């Protein structure tokens, strides 16, 4: 008897089943149940070899500890997102690496801090302030377009929370509007393949190998596309982040082509479905609570609290994986060097020990030290941009929309990695 806390098969299956993530309350029930009994618990496959066993970490304190201890818990060499063995083998055959893309999230020290430093300043509030006017104009256009639709019934995801963050990220990467749709399709092939509505290519019915083939194709297309942008920004640098990446030097050398492509891809993909999911969640919370809508309409100082709580409440990045660099005791379990761990942000951000009444959307929650952006060396590079974008969009909504209410069933994506609402039907009345 090893003494290890091993999750029973039926519960373990839910942790890795994309469809379980489409049903939010059920998912939170599962994590509550697991956390209460075994905050650090082993998930093993029913069929040997399907995937490598991993430790599921569901308590806030343990997720925080792992996130901050970047020497003991590495992002490399195992995949940084949960993957089946077949998919990992294909990735190795296709690229020679466990990961199809080499980017900030898969690097550890000493490379990671050098790469991170390249764009860190660009993503700080002082620099982002330059974007505010542009964001305000974009937010106003997006909301006006939604209101022009006439009937008053809108799918908020399709019309607002999807397109707005996509345009922001594409703009900072120098992608013109006409190429946006293609970029979105590619991102959804990378992240949304588990959901039949999001991948747009029947990927949910494919074998892991077929899925990885599509994903590898998407990566290649991204790489070729951004090579063109980088070349342009080397000749004609501007103030955008695309120019910073194109002209960056590490140890006196330009980034190797694969790393440069990886940098563009991580910014392109990390920045929109995530912000979209939190934006849709905030709007859902306000639509469900007319009093809160009225309160924030009258007092805009409540907006930052709403934005922050929406990010916790939705936790769009649902997990990342880490690999133990040493033997360590965690939550009463003996984690061995080389073990794989899933730090689950949804579970951590709904830990009642840290967040009283965690399923409640509480705009006045204080403190609200959530982990939706992670923590430690890899903490979200775009967190200030995400907050700024959301605040500016909600200012435009509060200016232009008199009232908002649910107009049908909101549906979540089936995805274990980046998740959130894929439709949010609302009835809106212009101010
Ligand atoms: C990393 C969440 C928006 C770019 C991360 C991580 C999380 C996260 C959980 C990993 C943190 C860790 O390992 O400790 C989110 C959420 C967002 C959001 C919830 C929106 C609500 C953005 C935006 C951008 C962005 C707008 C850029 C345009 C990145 C990058 C990384 C990252 C580049 C990798 C950082 C590194 O490994 O050093 N994000 N993100 N994210 N995010 Fe975000």
Automatic annotation (TrEMBL):
Family according to the record: Belongs to the cytochrome P450 family.
Molecular function terms, GO-annotated: cholest-4-en-3-one 26-monooxygenase activity; heme binding; iron ion binding; steroid hydroxylase activity
PANTHER family according to UniProt: BIOTIN BIOSYNTHESIS CYTOCHROME P450, P450, PUTATIVE (EUROFUNG)-RELATED
Segments traversing the membrane: none
Record-linked Pfam families: p450
Protein name per Swiss-Prot or TrEMBL: Cytochrome P450
Function as written in the Swiss-Prot or TrEMBL entry: Cytochromes P450 are a group of heme-thiolate monooxygenases. They oxidize a variety of structurally unrelated compounds, including steroids, fatty acids, and xenobiotics.
Keyword Oxidoreductase appears in the UniProt entry: yes
GO biological process terms held by the UniProt record: cholesterol catabolic process
UniProt keyword annotation of DNA-binding present: no
Key words, A-Z: Heme, Iron, Metal-binding, Monooxygenase, Oxidoreductase
Database matches in Gene3D superfamilies: Cytochrome P450 (1.10.630.10)
InterPro entries: Cyt_P450, Cyt_P450_B, Cyt_P450_CS, Cyt_P450_sf
């Amino acid at each position: 008897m090893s003494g290890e806390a091993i999750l029973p098969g039926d519960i373990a299956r839910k942790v890795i089943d994309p469809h379980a993530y489409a049903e939010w309350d059920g998912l939170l029930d599962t994590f509550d149940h697991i956390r209460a009994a075994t905050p650090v618990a082993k998930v093993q496959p029913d069929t040997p070899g399907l995937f490598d066993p991993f430790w599921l970490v569901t308590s806030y304190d343990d997720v925080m500890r792992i996130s901050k201890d970047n020497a003991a818990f590495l992002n490399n060499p195992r995949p940084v997102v949960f993957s089946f063995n077949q998919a990992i083998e294909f990735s190795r055959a296709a690229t020679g690496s466990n990961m199809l893309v080499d980017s900030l999230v898969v690097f550890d020290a000493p490379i990671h801090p050098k790469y991170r430093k390249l764009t860190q300043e660009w993503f700080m509030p002082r620099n982002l302030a330059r974007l505010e006017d542009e964001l305000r104009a974009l937010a106003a256009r997006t909301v006006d377009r939604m209101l022009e639709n006439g009937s008053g019934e809108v799918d908020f995801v399709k019309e607002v929370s999807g397109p707005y963050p996509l345009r922001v990220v594409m703009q900072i990467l120098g992608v013109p509007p006409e190429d946006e749709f293609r970029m979105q399709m590619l991102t959804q092939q990378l992240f949304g393949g588990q959901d039949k509505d999001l991948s747009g290519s029947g990927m949910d019915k494919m074998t892991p190998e077929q899925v990885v083939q599509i994903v590898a194709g998407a990566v290649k297309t991204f790489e070729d596309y951004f090579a063109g942008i980088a070349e342009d920004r080397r000749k004609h640098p501007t103030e955008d982040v695309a120019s910073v990446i194109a002209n960056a030097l590490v140890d006196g050398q330009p980034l190797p082509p694969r790393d440069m492509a990886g940098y563009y891809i991580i910014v392109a993909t990390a920045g929109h479905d995530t912000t979209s999911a939190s934006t849709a969640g905030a709007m859902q919370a306000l639509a469900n609570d007319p009093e809160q809508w009225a309160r924030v309409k009258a007092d805009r100082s409540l907006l930052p609290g709403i934005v922050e709580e929406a990010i916790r409440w939705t936790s769009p990045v649902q997990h990342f994986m880490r690999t133990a660099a040493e033997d360590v005791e965690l939550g009463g379990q003996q984690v061995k060097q080389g073990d794989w761990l899933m730090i689950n942000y949804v579970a951590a951000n709904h830990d009642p020990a840290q967040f009283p009444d965690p399923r409640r959307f509480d705009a006045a929650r204080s403190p609200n030290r959530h982990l939706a952006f992670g923590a430690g060396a890899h903490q979200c590079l775009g967190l200030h941009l995400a907050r700024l974008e959301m605040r500016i969009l909600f200012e435009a909504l509060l200016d232009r929309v008199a009232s908002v209410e649910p107009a049908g069933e909101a549906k979540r994506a089936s995805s274990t990695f980046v998740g959130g609402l894929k439709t949010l039907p609302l009835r809106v009345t212009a101010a």
